[in-house]
What does this fold into?
Amino acid sequence: MKISYEPIGIINTPFKLKKGMPIQSNGAKGIKGTVTVKKEYSEGLKDLEGFSHIYLIYHFHKSQNYSLTVKPFLDNNFHGVFSTRAPQRPNSIGLSVVKLVSVTGNVLEVENVDMLDGTPLIDIKPYIPDFDVFEVEKVGWTNNKTENIDAIKSDNRFE
Amino acid sequence: MKISYEPIGIINTPFKLKKGMPIQSNGAKGIKGTVTVKKEYSEGLKDLEGFSHIYLIYHFHKSQNYSLTVKPFLDNNFHGVFSTRAPQRPNSIGLSVVKLVSVTGNVLEVENVDMLDGTPLIDIKPYIPDFDVFEVEKVGWTNNKTENIDAIKSDNRFE
It folds into this structure.
């Protein structure tokens, strides 16, 4: 079975290179980007401006291959790719929550972007704390490694 | 540009019909399901059992068409599809956070499932509060509508 998607738009950010990028949107505070949705889908954006935060689901378009075990940016040990957020996944799909600043026609101004410039956008969903905030019991290998994500930037390990 | 994904596995749940389902995983507390990852990807599950909550990204395989404006289950007004979590999206992609109970080989036992039985799985990512919990300023049209999601079930509106 093949699942086939067409980008609904494009994400523009200041990041032209994989190296030196924030590794999560929480480590990209204040970094501005633009989401341009294809004009044919503009009507689908109705009421989106009521939300302060949205999910962007996108394609890691510069990720050519995958590995089943990876050394993620936060650690120097190998972990199964599905227990990481690394881009080298069997299906190269990325997920970020960004701050929505404005919607003008088919263009969204956003903040806290952590993806490459030119990233193809697959979907937008509203972020709703009653649906999306969970109390967890454990965070596996990331325990004690996520507090300083502002300071951690990507390197070339997934080139 | 076409984006092509292959399912990495399948999600089995008690839900054979679209009608009467929980509308979010937070409204599906304790409902058990199984995620069977293809054997060729088993190694990618290494260390996943360390996490109590995971994202499942999946294909709404029973969603044939899309609408740019929809009446979501929580409301009787039309909203742009991207400001809802409705399945009738240009790219029929779904996102749920479920509780991970166990990992045995390539099979995950999970709880809080809100998807149809037989749903094709596209990706798994760990849920990490430091990356995934955001303070929001506003939740748009969903304001005051999300507290009782336990009581709200799907109906046939997206048939």
Residues 9-142 of chain A form a domain with the Elongation Factor Tu (Ef-tu); domain 3 fold (CATH 2.40.30.70). Residues 57 and 123 of chain A are 5 Å apart (CA to CA). The two ends of chain A are 29 Å apart (CA to CA). The longest helix of chain A spans residues 129-132.
